[in-house]
Design brief:
Elements lengths: L6 H4 L7 E6 H15 L2 E5 L1 H6 L2 H10 L4 E4 L2 H9 L5 E4 L8 H7 L2 E4 L2 H14 L3 E6 L14 H9 L4 E7 L9 H17 L8 E3 L3 H6 L7 E2 L22 E13 L4 E2 L5 E2 L4 E6 L17 E4 L2 E6 L7 E4 L11 E5 L5 H7 L4 H7 L5 E5 L1
Parallel strand pairs: 1-18, 2-3, 2-9, 3-4, 4-5, 5-6, 6-7, 7-8
Antiparallel strand pairs: 1-10, 10-13, 10-17, 11-12, 13-16, 14-15, 14-17, 15-16
Helix pairs in contact: 6-7, 11-12
Length: 375
C-alpha cells in the first residue's frame, strides 16, 4: 500500500482552483441598509449555509452586529451555530418533526408553531423540563407552506394561551410574491394586520414579523417590529431596480490553467455545440458545475471578468473547467485570476442566463470551493 505520510511536507500545497471571497465589510454594510429600510429589529436569515456564504462565519458577524434572531431552516443548522459559540437567539423558520422538539425545548431555540397539536406537544415537553418555551405562531396568509389559516387562528387562540408550557411571544407570516404581485402582497399584509389585532396586538405579541427582503424593500410594514431579510444581506435585491447601494458579499473566482490557439473548424467542449470559425485563442478556467457554477449558462452569452474586461464563455460548462474566448487580448496568461461573478459581474446576470434565481446560484456553490473571508 502506498503511504502518503510526509507528502504535505515534501510538496508545496497548491492554491485552490476555485474560491469565493466573502467580504464581511459588505455584509455589515448591507445589514445597516436593511436596518435603515425597515426601522425595526432584524432577524438575519442564515439558512442554507448563510445562502452558501458560510453559516458559522456569518452567524458570528451578525451576532457581533446585535441582530435579534438568526433564522435557520432546521435543528442541524441551529446546532452548528451553537457549537460555533454564537449565543444569539435562534429561530426555526419551518415546521419541526416531533422527534426534534425535545432538543428545541432543552436548548431554548424558538420554533414557529403551525398547529394546535404541535403547540400542545411543545408545551408538554416544556412542562416536563420545568420551563416555559418561547414560541411564535405561523400564519398562512397565502404561502401555503405551513401555519394557521387566518380565519382559524382566533378560534384556537384561547386554547393556545392555556398551554402553560408555552410563552407565545410572537407571530409571523411569509410573502411568496412580494417581488411579483403587489396587489396580492398588500392583501396578505392586510390579513396579517387583522389577525394581529384580533389577538390583541402588541400587548399580547412581543414580536410581529412579515417582511422578507422583497417585503422590506418594496412595502411599508406598519404594525411589525421585526423583519427577516435574507438575500439583501448578501448584496442582491429581489426587486428589479431596487438594489440601491447594496454591496455584493460573495465574489466567485478561479484561475486560467491553460491558454491555447485552436484552428478554424475546431469544436470546443462536449457535444461540439460551439465550433470555431477562425483561429481562436482559448483560455481554460479551473471551475465548472462541480463547483456550483451553473451549467445552464452554456450557449446563453455568459461571460467572465478577466484583466478588467468581459470575455465570452465558449461551448458547454464542464464539471471542472470552462473555456473562454480571449482572442482579442494579448496579455492573457496561465494563472490569471478570473471573476465568475461579484463586483464586476452581477450574480443576477449569471442567474438569468442560467434560467434560474440568485438564491439557487448562491446555495449551489459546492464545498469544493474554498471560502476566503476578508474585511
Amino acid at each position: 500500500m502506498v503511504s502518503l505520510a510526509g507528502v504535505s511536507s515534501k510538496f508545496s500545497i497548491s492554491s485552490p482552483r476555485a474560491w469565493a471571497e466573502i467580504d464581511f465589510s459588505a455584509l455589515r454594510w448591507n445589514l445597516a441598509r436593511a436596518r435603515e429600510s425597515c426601522g425595526v429589529d432584524v432577524m438575519a436569515v442564515v439558512k442554507a449555509g448563510a445562502y452558501g456564504h458560510g453559516l458559522e462565519q456569518l452567524a458570528r458577524v451578525f451576532a457581533e452586529e446585535g441582530v435579534a434572531f438568526l433564522g435557520v431552516a432546521n435543528v442541524g443548522e441551529a446546532r452548528r451555530i451553537r457549537e460555533a459559540g454564537v449565543g444569539t437567539r435562534i429561530y426555526l423558520l419551518g415546521a419541526t418533526w416531533a422527534g426534534e422538539r425535545e432538543e428545541i425545548v432543552a436548548r431554548d431555540w424558538t420554533p414557529c408553531v403551525s398547529t394546535l397539536e404541535e403547540a400542545r406537544h411543545f408545551s408538554g415537553l416544556a412542562d416536563a423540563a420545568g420551563k416555559r418555551l418561547k414560541v411564535h405562531l405561523a400564519v398562512d396568509t397565502g404561502m401555503g407552506r405551513g401555519g394557521f389559516l387566518p380565519e382559524d387562528l382566533p378560534r384556537v387562540w384561547p386554547d393556545l394561551c392555556g398551554l402553560e408550557g408555552l410563552e407565545i411571544e410572537g407571530i409571523g407570516s411569509h410573502l411568496p410574491s412580494a417581488d411579483e404581485d403587489e396587489a396580492f402582497t398588500l392583501g396578505q399584509m392586510a390579513k396579517f394586520g387583522d389577525v394581529v389585532e384580533r389577538l390583541g396586538g402588541a400587548a399580547n405579541l412581543r414580536w410581529r414579523h412579515l417582511a422578507n427582503s422583497a417585503g422590506l424593500l418594496g412595502y411599508p410594514n406598519p404594525g411589525c417590529n421585526l423583519a427577516r431579510p435574507g438575500l439583501m444581506l448578501y448584496g442582491v435585491s429581489p426587486l428589479a431596480g431596487r438594489a440601491g447601494d447594496l454591496r455584493p458579499v460573495m465574489t466567485l473566482k478561479s484561475r486560467i490553467t491553460l491558454v491555447r490557439t485552436l484552428p478554424a473548424g475546431h469544436g470546443v467542449s462536449y457535444g461540439r455545440s460551439f465550433v470555431t470559425t477562425r483561429p481562436t485563442k482559448v483560455a481554460t478556467v479551473g471551475i465548472g458545475y462541480g463547483d456550483g457554477y451553473p451549467r445552464h449558462v452554456s450557449g446563453n452569452g455568459a461571460e467572465v471578468w478577466l484583466r478588467g474586461r468581459r470575455f465570452p464563455i465558449l461551448g458547454r460548462v464542464t464539471m471542472d473547467q470552462l473555456m473562454v474566448d480571449v482572442t482579442s487580448a494579448d496579455d492573457i496568461a496561465e494563472g490569471d485570476e478570473v471573476e465568475l461573478f461579484g463586483a464586476n459581474l452581477p450574480v443576477a446576470e449569471i442567474a438569468e442566463k442560467a434560467g434560474t434565481i440568485v438564491w439557487e446560484v448562491f446555495t449551489g456553490i459546492t464545498p469544493r470551493v474554498t471560502r476566503c473571508y476578508v474585511g
